[in-house]
Amino acid sequence: MDTDTTRDAIRNAIGNEIRAARARRGITQNELADQSGISHTTIVRLESGKRTVDVVQLFAICKVLDVDPGVLLDAAQSAQGAEES
């Protein structure tokens, strides 16, 4: 897998985990944006894998979603690994 493909897979896996955690909490993208201080557009782009999440954003999102950042990243890594096999 080349670097761009790997990067895309990681972004997609993290975005999917953010979306799933948000759904479990029962909040909308707008609510996540308001509560995290991250724009709605950025939330949409993160969840769709079109933007790479930075550490500050990840922590803000995880705080709102009441998810440990490490747990979210572990789940994304597991999902990404499953897609590769």
From TrEMBL:
Domain of life: Bacteria
UniProt keyword annotations, A-Z: DNA-binding
A single cellular component GO annotation: cytosol
InterPro entries xrefs: Cro/C1-type_HTH (IPR001387), Lambda_DNA-bd_dom_sf (IPR010982), TransReg_Diox_bact_type (IPR050807)
Keyword S-adenosyl-L-methionine: no
UniProt domain HTH cro/C1-type: residue ranges: 18-72
Keyword DNA repair: no
GO molecular function: DNA binding; DNA-binding transcription factor activity
Pfam families: HTH_3
PANTHER family named among the record's database cross-references: HTH-TYPE TRANSCRIPTIONAL REGULATOR (PTHR46797), METHYLPHOSPHONATE SYNTHASE (PTHR46797:SF1)
Entry protein name: DNA-binding helix-turn-helix protein
